[in-house]
Amino acid sequence: MSAVAGRMSVQAGAHSLEKNQKGRGLLLGGAPGVDPAKVVILGGGVVGENATLIATGMKAKVYIIDKSSQRLKKLKGIFGDAIIPQQSDKVDLKKVISECVLLIGGVLIPGGEAPKLITKDMLKLMKSGSVIVDVAIDQGGCVETSKPTTHANPTYMVDDIVHYCVANMPGGVPRTSTLALNKATLPFLTKLANDGYEKALKEDKNFLEGLKV
Question: pTM of the full predicted structure?
Fold first, then answer.
């Protein structure tokens, strides 16, 4: 589901940038004679990688920020010169967000609350009509001004910045989400049915890690 949400984040952000959505009125990929828009992705995990896949496909200028140099190196190997990787403890985050028009918050901590990386004061540095898509909203959000929204009313404004903070983003594409979830879980269900739970737990660490007592 993180992969689905990551891909949706750029799609939602691009739509929110349109003028009739109160956005800045920019096309992510630019146009002949017009530079592409700058996208900043916070977090290089599953969400960040899938957001990068769509953003680079739309020909945006993509900055991806993560604390792990090893992870950034891997992403550079995947996307090459289509991205600009930045290590979180070395980047000037205020400068980066002041230059972007789409900010994707993909910092997720399994089982924990997302860290607030973007404060309310930092919004004043962003261009009017820029968009924040906080994918981490299910874990409290990584932006201080984020609050959960719905697919019916996905956005709101704070300091002229569009906030898209839909909880359970994959719910907006239920067919794709169901098919993806089914493909990921069916092999485990088949093994459990064929081998029984004792053998499955002994031979496959994924079952043991997922065991809830």
Answer: 0.90
Bridge partners (DSSP) of residue 64 are 41, 85
Domains observed in the chain = 2-172 (3.40.50.720), 174-209 (no CATH)
Helix (H, G, I), strand (E, B) or coil at 89: coil
Beta-bridge partner residues of 131: 102, 162
Residue at 191: amino acid letter: K
Residue 44 C-alpha from the chain's centroid: 9
- How far, in Å, CA of 75 to CA of 62, rounded? 12
Nearest in space to 153 (alpha carbons), one of 8, 21, 6, 18: 21
Spatial contact of 201 and 211, defined as CB atoms under 8 Å apart: yes
Name the pairing type of β-strands 161-164 and 155-158. antiparallel
Per-residue model confidence as pLDDT tens digits over 94-139:
999 999 999 999 998 877 888 999 999 999 999 999 999 999 999 9
